[in-house]
Design a protein that fits this description.
single chain, five-stranded mixed sheet, 5 helices, 39% helix, 18% strand, globular
Amino acid sequence: MDEPVIDLQSDDYFMREALRQAARAYEAEEVPVGAVIVREGRIIARAHNQVELLKDATAHAEMLAITQAEQAVGDWRLTDCTLYATKEPCPMCAGAIVHVRLARVVFGASDAKGGAAGSVLNLLQLPTLNHRCTITAGVREAECRALLQGFFAEQRQARPKPNNGG
């Protein structure tokens, strides 16, 4: 039996760590997404969105965590690693996930507008690509979703109201 044992308590624990990263993004006025990468039961990378800080559209939590994990492993292949992200990966991040050959992706909140791990499309399990990831969705989903919804509600409130004539 070569299938990895999926420990739901560990998933809960590691998603809590990703949520801590998402909270750091929220405090920095970034879209609150956090990610951690785990290898052999240990976190080897932690990151949160830094798009605004770095003025870099590719500075998503998943992308930054992948770069850290590659450095920790000493290779671009992350075949024995699991990514935990508070939000379903976008197409850019999903493409990178496939390229580095992550074994598994665990996410909290799905993304009905741009999710690339099953909501809008599923790049992580596309049969024509050279690698497919195992996906576990909905871990600590309510907390992940609440953080995102709270952030965007605040963003809408902070916007100036349009002047409708008069």
